[in-house]
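Hi Q.,

Before the meeting this afternoon, I wanted you to have the NAP prediction in hand. No need to reply - just skim if you have a minute. The sequence and ligand are here:
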Amino acid sequence: MADADKTQFNLIIGAGSGIAGALITALASEEPDSGLLLVSRKPVDLPESASVPVHQFRCDYSEAGIAQLGQDLSPWYGRIRLVVISTGILHNDSIKPEKRAEDLNMNNMLEVLRINTVIPTLFLMKLLPALRGEQPCRVFTLSARVGSIADNHKGGWTSYRASKAALNMVIKTAAVEYARRAPNVKLIAFHPGTVDTALSKPFQRSVPEGKLFKPDFVANRLLTIAADLPIDGDASYLDWAGKSIVW
Ligand SMILES: NC(=O)c1ccc[n+]([C@@H]2O[C@H](COP(=O)([O-])OP(=O)(O)OC[C@H]3O[C@@H](n4cnc5c(N)ncnc54)[C@H](OP(=O)(O)O)[C@@H]3O)[C@@H](O)[C@H]2O)c1
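Predicted structure with the ligand bound:
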């Protein structure tokens, strides 16, 4: 479907993630008047029923690649109503969340910080020109409750916790500049709960009954929260229920 001049768009970054996949499905069916801009390292499968305008962008998440994406989005400047930044890692073949001091490894920690903190930071900074203007826009960056400094009573997962705490600080800091330069934007650090995706798979056994969410439930929660959230010039740190988390 071709873009009408006034079509608004939802921009999903890290569109290959489990949570992003559910968001894409929900947006394609529940917001038929908005198009989708999808950013990922690889092509993203679309729901068969999708009849909204969709534009896919490949990005390697390098600094140059993210800057280029900011420019490639110029046809949609001022028309983006929702941004979700979903990149994040908890484990891979060589990285495991640390349980004790001896588990810490510098290269692994730097890789977690790169993916969970630096990449979303670059997107937040490079997207600012795209989000200036009259169009109200909510920007959700996928954080986690374990990034709360005040709420850390259990310890462990040093790199993941640190990466999300640093991400939260980036969001708080960026909100000050956005309030001045792109005042119709609201920035949110979002905790989706524990969601049944590849990221949480090895850790699901310890999740209490009823607390492992399906991605489509979380996608719908995020969209419901986005619809009601006032644009107030400050960052919010919210969970899936819409409740504030202490920074
Ligand atoms: N699942 C949970 O229980 C849970 C809980 C709290 C917070 N979160 C947060 O929610 C977000 C999405 O999580 P998810 O559960 O949907 O995870 P997921 O399915 O594992 O998706 C991972 C995401 O991270 C990106 N990514 C993975 N490895 C990467 C690498 N080496 N370099 C650059 N990017 C990489 C992927 O981007 P591509 O699109 O390019 O593949 C994808 O967007 C994450 O930030 C996560 O920390 C999840």
